Amino acid sequence: MTRPEAFDFARPDDDWATLASRRRDTPVKGLAELRRLTAKFAYGAVLTVQAFTFWPMRWRAAMLRSLGLRLSHDTYIADRCYFKGFGLITEGKVVMNTGCHLDAAGQIILEDGTGLACEVMIVTSSHEIGDETWRAGPVLRKPVRICSGAWIGARAMILPGVTVAPGCVIA
Fold first, then answer.
1. Do 75 and 91 meet the contact criterion of CB atoms below 8 Å apart?
2. Alpha carbon distance 105, 118 (integer Å)
3. Cα(164)–Cα(161) distance, rounded to whole angstroms?
4. Residue 123: beta bridge partners?
5. In whole angstroms, what is the distance from residue 73 CA to residue 50 CA?
6. 29 three-state secondary structure
7. Residue 101 and residue 106: Cα distance in Å, rounded?
């Protein structure tokens, strides 16, 4: 029986601990913990290295594809961008400028012709409002879709559950 690769069964809301714990062929608990920590380290290392300024924009996308993100071959990612989660999907030509922050705990779909200016933040997770003893209740994840031809201006924030219509400019 061949062993599955770590990313063959990734879902948009998975983190590295979930992926590592889903392995069924781990005979020893200590080995499972070692695999989990190694996978988490590798994920963090790739995210850190891709943010360096000397990589060409297309190479950054290739590094993120190696982690299991579904990015088109026309995705351009500038330096110092931060990614969390596995829910990022790009379709066609997508450009992300310097310093973007994408929380892909839920699904983020960026369609063809989408442009993100400097330091855009897209968030897919939030919390329900809890009781007076703990206001940050259970985590909620809602998808975000940026339709074709949309442009998100510098430092704009897109919150969970938002769909930006085709050709819109958010400034």
1. no
2. 21
3. 10
4. 103
5. 16
6. helix
7. 14
Distance, CA of 19 to CA of 96 (rounded, Å): 27
Distance between CA atoms of residues 16 and 72, nearest Å:
23
Average pLDDT of the chain, as a whole number: 83
Tell me, what amino acid is at 88? L
Please, what is the Cα angle at 77 between 148 and 163, to 5 degrees?
A: 30
Amino acid at residue number 82: Y
Q: Bridge-partner residues for 140, per DSSP? A: 126
Per-residue pLDDT tens digits for 50-104: 878 888 888 888 888 888 889 999 999 998 999 988 899 999 999 999 999 999 9
More confident residue, 10 or 93: 93
How far is residue 89's CA from residue 15's CA, in Å, rounded to a whole number? 16
Q: Which helix (H) or strand (E) holds 57?
A: helix 57-66
pLDDT of residue 9: 45
Length of the chain: 171
- Cα–Cα distance, 84 to 122 (Å, whole number): 11
Instruction: Tell me the one-letter amino acid at 93.
Output: K
Instruction: Output the pLDDT for position 17.
Output: 55
